[in-house]
Amino acid sequence: MHSMTYSAADHLARTALSSPPPHQGSSHLLGGISGGTVLVLGVAAWAIIKLRSNGTGAATAASGGRGLIRALISMSKGIGSAFGGLYKALRAVLRFVGGRELWGKPKSTATFLGAGTRLTTLTDQAPATALGSVALAPPKVSLVKRQPSPWARKTAAWLAGYHGRAERALDVTVRTALWTARTTTRAYKATRTAYRAVAPVVATIARTLGNWHCWPYAARGLARLLLLALLAAWLIPAWATWALLAALTAAGLLAALARRLVPTRPGDDAVYGPRLWVILRQDLKLPEDEPRERWLHLPQRLSDPGARIVLRLPWTFRGSELERQQVTELITSRLPGEWVGRYSFTGEECTAVYTHKPPATPKVEPECPEMVDFFDPEVQDAIAACAVGEVVLGRDQHHNIVTRRLDGETPHWALSVGTGGGKSTFNVSVAVQLIAQGFHIIVADVKRSSVKPLEGIPGVYIYNDPSNPQDMRAAIEWFKEEIDARSYVKNRNPEIEFPGLLLLIEESNEFADVSREWWDDNRKTSKDEFGPADRAADPIWGEVASAARLGRFVRGNILAVFQDLRDQALGGKGLRNLFRLKFMGNYNVNQWKNVIGTTPVPESVDKAGRMMIVEGNSHIWVQTLYGPGSDLHDWAMQRRQEQGFDPAAGLFGTPPERSAERLPSLLRGLSRDDAASGPLRASEGGLEDETAGRLSHNGPGVTALDGDVTASRDRLRLIPGEGGQEPADDPTAPPELLPLAEVARRVGPDQGVPKYDTLRQHKARRDDFPKGIEINGKEHFTVAQIVAYYTPKENRA
What we know:
Layout: H1 2-18, H2 29-52, H3 58-98, H4 150-160, H5 167-210, H6 217-235, H7 240-256, H8 258-261, H9 268-283, E1 296-297, E2 308-313, H10 321-334, E3 339-344, E4 350-356, E5 372-373, H11 377-384, E6 390-396, E7 401-405, E8 412-417, H12 423-436, E9 440-445, E10 460-463, H13 469-492, E11 501-506, H14 508-522, H15 540-550, E12 556-561, H16 575-578, E13 581-585, H17 589-595, E14 610-615, E15 618-626, H18 629-643, H19 687-692, H20 711-714, H21 740-747, H22 756-765, E16 773-775, E17 778-780, H23 783-790
Parallel strand pairs: 5-15, 8-12, 8-13, 9-10, 9-11, 11-12
Antiparallel strand pairs: 1-2, 2-4, 3-4, 6-7, 6-15, 13-14, 14-15, 16-17
Helix pairs in contact: 1-2, 1-3, 2-3, 3-6, 6-7, 9-10, 12-18, 13-15
């Protein structure tokens, strides 16, 4: 009995001693407690049996002593393992309740009550794939042409060979496809509507849970307790009440900390600082263990206006221009914005402070004035101070008066100005200044309206009938003959001086077309006894080119307006090079390239009177002079009278006479003019016949050429001035209301009424001007009303 008890106890002790120690590491509390209890009970049982034994021998005693030592060692290890497991379990419970990470290191900078930002590990060299290397990225465009799959080719072949088979199947397929598309669209719209309502809530919850590591520790602990309480209430019914109370309490505390759950956005110092310091430390030759906070300070918001980057410099930093440039380039390239540094090497610490580069002051280009009055006193003084051939053009961008000379290197000028650019006013302002200097003016004006203010001025010869282009050609040929005569005389008497002679060609490209058509219709096409046939090319531009080359020395100048100054359009005579001074306005890119031919093309300023003077390689914007046409006419007439101008003086010949003006074809037959070149007579059939323009002659019901006509019929003349004596006005008839232009035409200056341009200015500027009656949006006046206004004020300016 004793031996059996001893054997069992000894076996139990040996089993306990030979059992391996519990696992180290993350042991649970129950495992630690159970292992320690078994060891203690085994050792106690073995000791009691040994004490009760009386018949043991020496060998047995020795063996029992060694076993006791091993048992004590095992017991101490079991107790240590139990306490270790208990500590780790308690530590895990505290970390769970405290909201800390259950394993691993912290993943954010959060504190117990403050949210944090995620921690990122930085390396000196990131792998190329992480940097989005272009070399490792797949090509965006494949150079291998992909072939369609076999089923696609078979389907295409079947469709190509389809000739009306399986109509019903095709119809069902189409209807099914349409129904599927409609159903899918409805489902998509319904899903999209539901998503728009739920998405903000789901996105907010997901964003909040996604920032779990950035929550404060207290919030994380409360969330864990809340989940644990809900789990206990679900699994253990006896704990349901206390678990729900704990869950409600945790939920309330968690709601109170909800504002702190949103992680703080990392500042620019946390985002850019570590990355910048890796490179900057190498450039400053600092040890790797130097903390960034001692050398580099970045503001939390680099975009703030007063943001400052402070960099402490080591004593070994020499501050050369190259070193400063390297640091500046690094900061500018790695940080948003542009930065400028201020270095200081005096005092205890050498520093570099970088601030935002101040915005560049916008460069405001000076503007030309909106309008330059021809009669401005300063402009008039400049005109009076001009030498012969010098002309005031206007004011430049600095509001300085600009003058140029029709002499020297710029004896001939060319204009390329779009419609509404003010070229007609420019031509008149130049012409009247030359008139004041004693110039003779020859005008070829296909446009007919460009030089109206110059009409009636002595020494001005205007040829503006497009139906008689031979008159314009004759004027240009006479200009060339006058240049030849002056050159001949100048060659024999170099001291002689001639009065200026200006040839003004308006709309030169249109004149070129009209002149070429006339030449093609009238040139001699075959040889006869008087000489060979005429050339097919129009020779008039050869005359212009020759006059331009020879006229410089004898005061023969040309002012021409072009739309296209290419040589091919003007006979290929090299006229572009003869006009060294050019005026550009309201132009487009093609016009600039055709006329000037340089790049880049400056931007056009589309304003009336705004022109660019191109002289060689210099470009100057100028606002040209402006003045009312009637005032310019009066100013030029006054200068002619002061000069005592003789139109025949200084000329070797007489300008050609103008041909009789012919009415356009649509106006012929609307008048009774008996002249052979005038309009035809109209029928006597009454008002309807005359206004309809039926032009049968000498037929029934038509008045003979030498017959009389009635007074009412004479009043139907449509061409002003061709109606003969008008009948006396009816005193009982109401006064006739007329536009201001018609009033000026009827009365004229002989009754004290100025011209229409002056009338229009007085109407706009004078407060006491008669008030008209508005008809169809336009004011109308009576003749007596205007005559009465000017009768007592004949000397009014």
